[in-house]
Design a protein that fits this description.
This protein has about 270 residues and is α+β, with helices and mostly antiparallel strands. It is about 25% helix and about 20% strand. The strands form 3 sheets. Strands 1-6-7-5 form a 4-stranded antiparallel β-sheet. Strands 2-3-4-8 form a 4-stranded antiparallel β-sheet, with helices on one face. Strands 9-10 form a two-stranded antiparallel ribbon. The structure holds a DNA duplex (16 and 16 nucleotides).
DNA sequence: ATCGGGACCTGCTTGC
DNA sequence: TGCAAGCAGGTCCCGA
């Protein structure tokens, strides 16, 4: 489900109710998520004070007095703040109880994760991550340097979290449309000018999506239960055969790495392929 | 090192 | 109506 904007919107929603609060109790109903939820996680989190709620890539970071809990939402995960307790369903796997309410983690497909670390920078899932797209490190020069000699299609490269973090299947297609770049272009063939344009497109689409509360296609909602509204701004994703908003050409749908890609064949010319 | 594909898991939609 | 196939916002791991 969630890409960077949805994770960031979730972070912004839950940070105010968690910051400086004490976790009274941790309930893990299922441990078989993406990786097994360790007994250490529940033991360490119980009784700690949350110092801040951060984000690195698509991981939420519950920074606390003993270390950090990393929460990944996978494809179908969500976090929800409950002021009043409700009976958990079969997909509610983790819960934190605080004095003022409960933080509940729901994840139908269980591709998400809850991990514990007391050395965040050296954690294997964090160590190998690429640059944050909304920070100063992502520039056209960085992108071109990392893409040089790579033959893989640019859409697939944008999904690699070791290059740039935060983009997923929706925003990768959207960024390429906004940059006017065909998704099958060999990465190493992008000119510096195109890399500059792509970087601007990535930053713009993610920033706008965060401002709109993320994209809700199926069931994303922020930690306070608000759905996102960016889906009305999607230019190509999910719009197969519908007219391009810019030029009226029907949007095309292809598969790359067994995943859907959407693009406008006119606005995103294939001259590099 | 880079790539392509399969794997993990559940639920919903589509087509015969 | 029923059932199988295909699809979904992520990412790790394997073999070539």
């Amino acid at each position: 489900m969630p890409e960077l904007p949805e994770v960031e919107v979730t972070r912004q929603a839950i940070a105010p109710v968690l910051t400086n609060k004490v976790i009274k109790k941790v309930t893990v109903r299922r441990t078989d998520l993406r990786w097994p939820v360790s007994e250490e996680l529940a033991a360490k989190l119980t009784g700690v004070q949350i110092k801040s709620v951060g984000r690195r890539a698509k991981y939420l970071l519950l920074n606390n007095t003993r270390g950090t809990a990393l929460v990944h939402l996978g494809m179908t995960g969500s976090l929800r703040w409950l002021k009043e307790y409700t009976e958990p369903t079969s997909h509610d796997h983790v819960e934190l109880e605080l004095a003022s309410g409960w933080l509940r983690y729901t994840d139908i497909r269980r591709f998400g994760a809850w991990l514990w670390t007391d050395n965040l920078k050296q954690h294997p899932r964090i160590r190998e991550l690429g640059v944050e797209p909304l920070g100063d490190e992502l520039t056209g020069a960085y992108l071109q340097a990392r893409l040089i000699n790579r033959t893989q299609a640019i859409k697939l490269m944008l999904l690699k979290q070791s290059l740039i973090v935060g983009l997923g299947n929706i925003y990768a297609s959207e960024a390429l449309f906004r940059a006017g770049i065909h998704p099958e272009s060999p990465s190493g063939d992008l000119s510096r000018r195109m890399c500059d344009k792509l970087v601007v497109a990535i930053k713009t689409v993610l920033t706008e999506a965060i401002a709109q509360g993320g994209t809700t296609i199926k069931n994303f909602s922020s930690g306070q239960g608000e759905i996102g509204h960016f889906q009305v701004n999607l230019q190509v994703y999910g719009r197969e055969k519908q007219p391009c908003y810019v030029c009226n050409t029907p949007i095309e749908h292809i598969k790359q790495g067994q995943r859907s890609t959407f693009f406008c064949p006119n606005c995103q010319p294939s001259d590099l392929i």
